[in-house]
Design goal:
single chain; about 325 residues; alpha/beta; Rossmann fold; L-2-Hydroxyisocaproate Dehydrogenase, Chain A, domain 2; three-stranded antiparallel β-sheet; globular; binds nicotinamide-adenine-dinucleotide; binds (2S)-2-hydroxybutanedioic acid; L-malate dehydrogenase (NAD+) activity; NAD; oxidoreductase
């Protein structure tokens, strides 16, 4: 597999590459050719990363291409992990990055369209991830729309771990958490369909915790604000946990989720009344390289309100991003007059 990582010289890149090269991400027998892209001034650091990869001696790693040319980086790739963007700092919301990052995804979407494999699977991580994925998708009309996804698996893992820590069970004992909507502070972490493996068998999380005030209040806030809490503590955004989540996302999409429900931000097909086309996080199961949105989950009034609120934020982000794109198109058209 040819796997491109953009922004590979950054902090997530450094934490992610060992997952990819050790077989954790794409399976233990999939040989990997890495295409590492970063901007010109990061090339020296990227060469250092390449040297370290060589020193690791990963059996699955066949070749490492290091470049600042997106044309080279995207040629013939089967998977694209898009980290390359400005991260947010203290006091910023992820959508504050839209103006800065929209242009990167526009240009890179256009190039993916031209030179990547037509089956390339894309996960956008750079924030605001959902809307950046939409921008790249819109600029890559020859690649199937469903191949563009954004990362909400980190939020999913955070939600699962919060419940597990409260119940003093391993994280893997908690199943069917869902992140609905945007990778932002409006996201809706929902455990109304979650179960936990106990000595008595699988029980509903709501029955074991029996504290709706916590599940509708503090739990949701902690997950929504976890990224900001990490920035405040580290003065840098999450990287180790983001890398693990990216690996989980790609693993499940390519290799299969083994019947498990996981969260992925994918183009809405109108399921659950979510406006078609938005890159919205849904509960999905994956097999044979495809994801399917889980249908017929019960949505109560509380959930409906939360799901709509995060959808409305995504609609606003989309409109702002499309206005940027159209403004650019106008400027280009005017400059040709
Ligand atoms: N969706 C999520 O769950 C999630 C989680 C953590 C971080 N993030 C986001 O991921 C992104 C990367 O985070 P990081 O901590 O690795 O940041 P970082 O600043 O350490 O690394 C980003 C890298 O991208 C490079 N870059 C910038 N513009 C580029 C371009 N046009 N082409 C290629 N490379 C480019 C930079 O040179 C840098 O090396 C940020 O936007 C961050 O907010 C998302
Ligand atoms: O919060 C951020 O900006 C980084 C990342 O999106 C996260 O959720 O940790």
């Amino acid at each position: 597999m040819r796997v491109c990582v953009t922004g590979a010289a950054g902090q997530i890149g450094y934490a992610l590459l060992p997952h990819i090269c050790s077989g954790r991400t794409f399976g233990p027998s999939t040989k990997i050719i890495l295409h590492l892209l970063d901007i010109p001034r990061a090339q020296q650091a990227l060469m250092g990363v390449k040297m370290e990869l060589e020193d690791c001696g990963f059996d699955l790693l066949e070749e490492v291409v290091v470049t600042s040319d997106a044309n080279v980086a995207f040629t013939g790739i089967d998977a694209c992990i898009m980290l390359g963007a400005f991260p947010r700092g203290p006091g910023m919301e992820r959508k504050d990055l839209l103006a800065k990052n929209c242009n990167i995804f526009k240009e890179q979407g256009r190039l993916l369209n031209e030179v990547a494999s037509k089956n390339v699977k894309v996960v956008v991580v750079g924030n605001p991830a959902n809307t950046n994925a939409l921008v790249a998708q819109q600029c890559a009309p020859s690649i199937p729309k469903e191949n563009f996804t954004a990362l909400t698996r980190l939020d999913h893992n955070r939600a699962q771990s919060q419940i597990a820590m409260r119940l003093k069970v391993p994280s893997s004992a908690v199943e069917n958490c869902t992140i609905w909507g945007n990778h932002s502070s409006t996201q809706y972490p929902d455990v109304s369909n979650s179960v936990v493996a106990t000595a008595q068998g699988k029980q509903k999380v709501g029955d074991v915790i029996q504290n709706p005030g916590y599940l509708h209040g503090e739990f949701i806030k902690v997950v929504q604000q976890r990224g900001a809490a990490i920035i405040n503590a580290r003065k840098l955004s999450s990287a180790m946990s983001a890398a693990k989540a990216i690996s989980d996302h790609m693993h499940d999409w390519v290799v299969g989720s083994n019947g498990k429900t996981v969260s992925m931000a994918v183009p809405s097909d109108g399921s659950y009344g979510i406006e078609k086309g938005l890159i919205y996080s849904f509960p999905v199961v994956c097999s044979a390289g495809k994801y399917t949105i889980v249908q017929n989950l019960k949505v109560d009034q509380f959930s409906r309100k939360m799901m709509d609120e995060t959808m409305n934020e995504l609609k606003q982000e989309r409109d702002t991003a499309l206005a940027f794109l159209n403004k650019d198109a106008d400027t280009i058209a005017r400059s040709k007059l």
